[in-house]
From TrEMBL:
<dbReference type="InterPro" id="IPR050679">
    <property type="entry name" value="Bact_HTH_transcr_reg"/>
</dbReference>
<dbReference type="InterPro" id="IPR028978">
    <property type="entry name" value="Chorismate_lyase_/UTRA_dom_sf"/>
</dbReference>
<feature type="domain" description="HTH gntR-type">
    <location>
        <begin position="10"/>
        <end position="76"/>
    </location>
</feature>
<dbReference type="InterPro" id="IPR036390">
    <property type="entry name" value="WH_DNA-bd_sf"/>
</dbReference>
<dbReference type="Pfam" id="PF07702">
    <property type="entry name" value="UTRA"/>
</dbReference>
<dbReference type="InterPro" id="IPR036388">
    <property type="entry name" value="WH-like_DNA-bd_sf"/>
</dbReference>
<dbReference type="GO" id="GO:0003677">
    <property type="term" value="F:DNA binding"/>
</dbReference>
<keyword id="KW-0238">DNA-binding</keyword>
<keyword id="KW-0804">Transcription</keyword>
<protein>
    <submittedName>
        <fullName>GntR family transcriptional regulator</fullName>
    </submittedName>
</protein>
<dbReference type="GO" id="GO:0045892">
    <property type="term" value="P:negative regulation of DNA-templated transcription"/>
</dbReference>
<dbReference type="Pfam" id="PF00392">
    <property type="entry name" value="GntR"/>
</dbReference>
<keyword id="KW-0805">Transcription regulation</keyword>
<dbReference type="GO" id="GO:0003700">
    <property type="term" value="F:DNA-binding transcription factor activity"/>
</dbReference>
<dbReference type="InterPro" id="IPR000524">
    <property type="entry name" value="Tscrpt_reg_HTH_GntR"/>
</dbReference>
<dbReference type="InterPro" id="IPR011663">
    <property type="entry name" value="UTRA"/>
</dbReference>
Length: 254
């Protein structure tokens, strides 16, 4: 029987939901998902507690269940991005009808000569660095690091980043809107710490996205995003006259 804390500090159903989410992320239920009676016996709890945990997993889009039938794993909602368009991951997740929030891993004024050079700044320029774990439906979706010139982005230090868009806050607090940019997307084999943070089994790959955001010809944002490949896709339009170009790169470690 798994270790369940029965001291009352956390509801039993929440502990079961978190344990099941972790087991699902690790690929344990590649066949059939356990029935309610099996989960009840496994965790040593009442059927009502199991049903409440499953109800939350259904609301998170992780499992589905119909009346009179055992629960089974849901097909994850894929988040689609258009190639060649200025987009916001926050808006794309919202458009897919998925709840979302972020966990801030870093928010500070720092210096980084490599990033400053990419932004066309003096190498010792101050930068605002924001690092977030992005979650969609309570499941990790992406690791997101962004750097902006501190002289214009300092007001962002006071933002509650739990559930908001960088571009909305950049516009509202700093008066800056991106107007163009460059982006490179490549497939990669995630490092162990990335797999742990994103709940990715060893067999899964990720997308690594490097973005230079530009506002009225001025480089403003350097962003590096690692996103789960099983939840994200890119889409492109083309025609016979202009076509489109795709650069293929060898996979690397994220």
């Amino acid at each position: 029987m798994p270790a369940i804390d029965r001291s009352g500090r956390a509801p039993l159903w929440r502990q079961i939901r978190e344990d099941l989410s972790q087991r699902i992320a690790e690929g344990e239920f590649t066949g059939a998902f356990p029935a309610e009676s099996e989960l009840q016996q496994h965790y040593g709890v009442s059927r009502q507690t199991v049903r409440q945990a499953l109800r939350q997993l259904r609301e998170d889009g992780i499992v589905t269940a119909e009346r009179g039938r055992s629960p089974h794993l849901a097909t994850p909602t894929e988040i689609e991005q258009p190639v060649g368009a200025l987009y916001s991951l926050f808006e794309s997740v919202r458009a897919a009808g998925i709840s979302q929030h972020s966990v801030v891993r870093a928010l500070a004024i720092t210096t980084d000569a490599h990033i400053a050079d990419r932004l066309g700044l003096d190498l010792d320029s101050s930068l605002l660095h924001l690092a977030r774990l992005r979650l969609a439906g309570d499941e990790p979706l992406a690791l997101d690091d962004v750097w902006l010139p501190a002289d214009v982005a300092r007001p962002l230090l006071h933002v509650d980043w739990h559930n908001t868009s960088l571009y909305d806050e950049l516009d509202h607090r700093c008066g800056i809107r991106l107007t163009s940019g460059q982006e490179q997307l490549r497939a990669a084999v995630p490092a162990a710490h990335v797999r742990e943070l994103l709940h990715i089994p060893p067999s899964e790959a990720v997308f690594c996205i490097d973005r230079l955001g530009i506002s009225h010809n001025q480089p403003t944002e350097w962003r590096q995003t690692i996103v789960r490949a099983d939840r994200f896709s890119m889409m492109a339009d083309f025609d016979a006259r202009t076509g489109y170009r795709i650069a293929v790169h060898r996979s690397t470690e994220a």
